[in-house]
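Exam review. A common question shows you a sequence with its structure tokens and asks you to describe the fold in words. Practice with the pair below. Do the first one on your own.
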Amino acid sequence: MPVKIPATLPARATLEHENVFIMDEDRALRQDIRALRVAILNLMPTKIATETQLLRLLSNSALQVEITLLHTATHESKNTDAEHLLNHYVTFEEIKNEEFDGLIITGAPIEQMLFEDVDYWNELTQILDWAETNVESNFYICWGAQAALYHRYGIQKYDLPRKMFGVFEHRVLEPNESLMRGFDDVFLAPHSRHTEIRSEDIANVNEIQILAQSDEAGVYIVGSKDGKHIFVTGHSEYDPLTLKGEYDRDVNKGLPIHVPKNYYPNDDPAQAPHVRWRGHANLLYSNWLNYYVYQNTAFDTDKQ
């Protein structure tokens, strides 16, 4: 898919080098097609890396997508240059009267905090409530998924005895769901989190169902039965070296961390990691865009 992004966004150079199809505004305007409007609420401290990861996956379709990057107004990012935010991001207050075809809310490295103790929790819940009427379909990642499940359905998160860290096998539980179309019966995806949600809590909520699960990593993909909300507890968007970067960071800080499972050959961090989740990641995002966003959205936004 041609992804329409500003020429000054750092991700652009990376994506062009990878031969990812991106588009400037002049070319987009010449096409007789309405671009899907997708907002990304980026809660990660490594915002530029996360932008690039998500834009790479959103590009893998024939659809045209116009991206709006959001950041929280009630939290000051310490890891992203203020000028980058000023030039490429907007706040919820600036777009709250607009409608979007899709919304992605990323994870955040705060899952061991109580939700209500997060300094932007009130702002986030406003966005979640707004998305119920102003967004066609919503896609939540890791902590973002936990936060949305808690706010919408009261589903709790639980501390793990040790970090769920590595690349794990998952099984498709609902093969007839459009999001699962084309998936292998068993597929791989990365996880990096200290907490979990539990299948028995999800079973108590009629509006949602587990679409994919791992015997080792637990619940992976949860979907609302109306297709409006997709909750993903892992990180299919991760680059080849993201887990390595997290592992090396924690080792250098002297933090207790184990080698990410099933990532390095023979679990040996001296070797180059193998990437075995790209196919699943691209299929997950292209299915979401096609079946849950594009197929359900109006050509004319005034008729939504």
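Now try the second one, then compare your answer with the model answer below.
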Amino acid sequence: MRSAHGSMSLGFTLIELLTALIILSLLALMSYRGLGAVLDAREYVKQETEKWRRVTSFFTRFERDMQLAAPRPVRAISGTAPAWDGRLHAMPDGAASPRLEFSRFASAEGIDSARRIGYVLNEKQEIELWLWPGLDVAPGMQPERYPILTGVVTFELQYLSADRLWMNIWPDMMAGSPIAAISSIPQAVRVRIVLMSGEEIERVFR
């Protein structure tokens, strides 16, 4: 026969049960926090990947358009517009932002036609791509506008002249004849953008 003492030794005391529950609760809490950290890190990586994908796509598009730039002035509502028209325009907050319009050849692949295009930073902190249906702008014709990069607080453009000088405005009507000026395009373009998240990116395109 088993003694009463031997029978009682087979069970668990209340303290032992509470200790086991506390240990299991701590393990569950650590597992939950670890899972939360993994999910937060995954979401952060996803957002960062998407942000840099959009930045890369913007610069790829900009570089392609630069390579197809055409030294062809166009007929506009106000008369003749320069082949490359880089100037500043006022923003709602009183700051100045570049507004770039230029003529562009058709791509060699034939997927696009020769047309007038533009890049502008709007009041929503978006860089917009402006597309006209052709090179010459008819009276009342407005470009189609597409936001191609969001979350941009600064968008700066500079243009390299034949004298190797960086200029904020193009063309330089004081250099050479007016006819040559409106047909000229810069040797290179320097682009600087600052994102809302604080990153600053600068690229130079020939």
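Model answer, second protein: Residues 14-67 form the longest helix (54 residues). Residues 65-205 form one domain. Full marks require stating both points clearly.
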